[in-house]
Design goal:
Length: 58
C-alpha cells in the first residue's frame, strides 16, 4: 500500500451530506502530532502509521 495520509491511522476523512447520504470529499485532517488539514492523497510524513489493511477507507 502506498503511503498517503488516506492510509494513516492519524488521518480523519471529512464528509458532506448529499441526498440523504454522506460522501467522502478526499479531504480531512491529521491529529498527530497536532491537528492540521490534509488532502487524502498527501504523501505521508515521518509520523505515518498504516491503518489495518482490512479497514476500508475508500
Ligand atoms: S501528516 Fe503524517 S501523521 Fe498526519 S495523516 Fe499524514 S502521514 Fe499520517
Amino acid at each position: 500500500m502506498d503511503e498517503y495520509c488516506k492510509y494513516c491511522v492519524h488521518f480523519f476523512m471529512h464528509y458532506v451530506a448529499h441526498k440523504g447520504d454522506f460522501m467522502a470529499i478526499d479531504f480531512g485532517h491529521c491529529v498527530f502530532p497536532r491537528v492540521k488539514p490534509r488532502d487524502a492523497m498527501t504523501k505521508a510524513c515521518v509520523h505515518f502509521r498504516a491503518v489495518d489493511k482490512l479497514t476500508d477507507r475508500t
